[in-house]
C-alpha cells in the first residue's frame, strides 16, 4: 500500500520535452514499388503500401542506409489480409509532396518533413500523422493530429470509460491480479488498434508491433502519440468513414471469429476450483434439479496432478472419462484449464518430451528459461515455432479422447511469479529460423498458444468446432479464442467497468468476450450476483467464476430469491439463443461486435459518444443494467425512433432519456420498433435447442410491427456443433418487415437452405399492432390459421418453415 509519501515534492519527475531527437528529415526521392511507393529521406525511408482502397500501410525504416529494394515488409501473425495486387492506385508528385491515390483515400507525404496526410475523395484531411521521432535506442514516437471534438475507441481490453480521450495505455500483456482501476495502463490483452471518431470521418490506426508500445491520448493537446519501444513502427491507416466501416475493415485485415459451437454460447459455471469428480457431478445435478440452464463446467488447476498440464489427479478425479460421459448425458461439457508453464520435472512425460526436442524457450546461453508458476519451477513452450505449436496442439488428444472439445488458456501473458512478472525480455524465440527476443514479441505469446490449442483440438474432434478461452492475446486473437477479462473483483465498479471494457474489445475485433460474472476475487453478495447475472446473460461470453478464498457464488448461493432471478435471466439467454446465434453469425461474417456501444449504431447522436452503461445486443435489443447497490431506478437513453419495453410492451418515443423502474428482479430491456426477434423455449442446455433434439418443433419470432417502419433481420441456423456449415449445411432466411398505413408485410426470402435439422414450423407473433387486423394474405395453401389476441394486441400466425419464399400481408 502506498502512503502520501508517494507524492512528496522530491518525487516529482519533470516531463521531458522531446520524444526523440531523430526524424526522417526532408524527402530525397520516391520510387514505385509493388503495392505502393517508398519515400527515401535524409535519415531513413518510408514504405507506403496499399492493402485495399481504404487501407494503407506505412512502415518506417530508420537510418540513412535504409534502402528501398531490400525492405522487410513481413507482418506479424495478426495480419491475414495481404495486399490485393489488383488494387489500382496512382502515384503523383508535386513540388511539395508525393501522392499515393486510391479510390477511397490518398496518402500524401510532405517532402519537407515526411509527415503524412490521409485525405478522402472530397479532399478532406481525415488523419494527419505529423511526424515520427526516434531516440538513440530506436524507440519511435508517432505524432498524430486530432480535432478537439475527437473521440477515441478500441484499444482492446482497457479499464476506464468507452471514450479514451485523456487516457494513456501501455500494450504489454500483464497478469494483473489487482488492481483493475482506471490508472492501470496494461492488462492481459494488447490490441494496438486506436479508432478515432472525428467529425469528418472515423478511422483507425493499427500498429502492428507485438513488443511494448504506448497509446497516449493525454500528453498532447491537439492530437495523440503512438510509441514503440522495440521493433518496427509499422501501422495501417484504416479509413471509415463510419465506425462500422473501420471495424469491418480492421477485422478483414486481422481476421474474424469463426462461428463458435453453440454450447460455448450457453451459460458456463466455474470456480477456482471444483475439487473433485464428485463435486463436479453434484454441481451438475444441482443445476438440473434446480432447472437452471448450464452448458459448461470448468476445471481449474486442482484437477491436475501437481498442476502438471495434461494430467488428472488420480485421487480427486479417478475416472474423468466416466465423469465427462455422465455430464454429457446431462447436456453439460467440461472445459479444463491449460496453462503454458510445464513443470520442470524429469519424471513428467510432457517435460521430458519437450526438453528432448528443444521445444521450450531458451535464454541466450541456450539453457531453457525457467520460472515459477503454479507447479513450481516451470519451462515454457516456444509457440513461435510451428513444430512446437503442433506438438502442443496434439497434446490435447489427452483431453479430446475423453470427450473434451474446449480448453481454457490462462497465465499465457506468460505470467511468471518473478520481479518482471513475465519471461525475461532477452529470452530467445526460435520463430521458425528467424530468432527474435521475447521483448520484441511478448504480446504474441498468448495468441500463439491459443492458436496452437484451437488448431490442435480442431484436429482431434472429428469435424466439430473447438472452443478456446484465453486471458492473453494480441490483435487477431478473435480468430482462435474467446476472451474473458481476467481477475476482476466482486465490486459494483467492476460490474460497471465490464461494459466499456467488453464494448471496446468488440470494437477491436474481439466479439466473443465477457467478465467473470459475480466477480472473481473478493466476496460477492446476492444483490450483486443478481444484477451481474442479468447483465451477463446478454454478454457474448457468459461465465460465473470466483476464486478459492471467496464465498460461493453459484446461482443458488444466496437463497431462493436470488436463485430465481438468476434462473430467469440465464433462462432468458437460452430463450434468446436463436437471436444470439444469428448475431454471432453476423459477427463472424462482418466483424461487427455481438454487443455494441450505442455509438456504433447511432454515430451522429452526441448523447451516445461516451455512453457505456447500456448496450445493444446486435442492433435490436437495448439493455440498461442496474450496476449500483440499493438502486431500483435508473436513467436510460433511448436513441431516436420508437422503442418498446421488453417486459411490458410499453411504447416509448426515443431521442430522450427515460426513467426506468427496475426492482431487483428486473433489468431494463428495450426492443426497437421493427425488431424481429427469433426465440425458443427455455432449455437446460443448448443441446436441447437444436434440430431433432429440440423440445418443440416450433421456432418463434416476435415482430414489433407497431409503426410505420421498415426493418430487416437475417435468421441463421445450423447444427451448432460441426464445421458442416462451411460446406453449406446451414439455413439463412432474410426477413423484411414493412409497416404501412393499414397493412403489415412480412417478406421471408430463403437465401440458403442446406441444413435439414431445422424446426418444422414458425410461429410469428406480430406485436403492438397499429390496427385491428381483418385478414392475413399469403399463407401457404392449407394454412389459414391466424389468431388475434385483442387484449395483448398480438396477431399470431403459425406456418411451415418457409422453404423458398413467404410473403404475408396483414390487412386492417
Ligand atoms: C488466474 C486466473 C483465474 C484462475 C486462477 C487459477 O488467476 O485468472 O481465472 O482461476 O488463475 O487458475
From TrEMBL:
One of its GO terms (biological process) is carbohydrate metabolic process. Residues 46-216 form the Glycoside hydrolase family 31 N-terminal domain. Residues 699-765 form the DUF5110 domain. InterPro entries: DUF5110, Gal_mutarotase_sf_dom, GH, Glyco_hydro_31_C, Glyco_hydro_31_N_dom, Glyco_hydro_31_TIM, Glyco_hydro_b. Keywords: Glycosidase, Hydrolase. It holds the Pfam family Glyco_hydro_31_2nd. Residues 591-677 form the Glycosyl hydrolase family 31 C-terminal domain. Residues 258-582 form the Glycoside hydrolase family 31 TIM barrel domain. Signal peptide: none annotated. GO terms for molecular function: carbohydrate binding; hydrolase activity, hydrolyzing O-glycosyl compounds. CDD domains: GH31_glucosidase_II_MalA (cd06604), GH31_N (cd14752). Belongs to the glycosyl hydrolase 31 family. This is Glycoside hydrolase family 31 protein. It comes from Paenibacillus soyae.
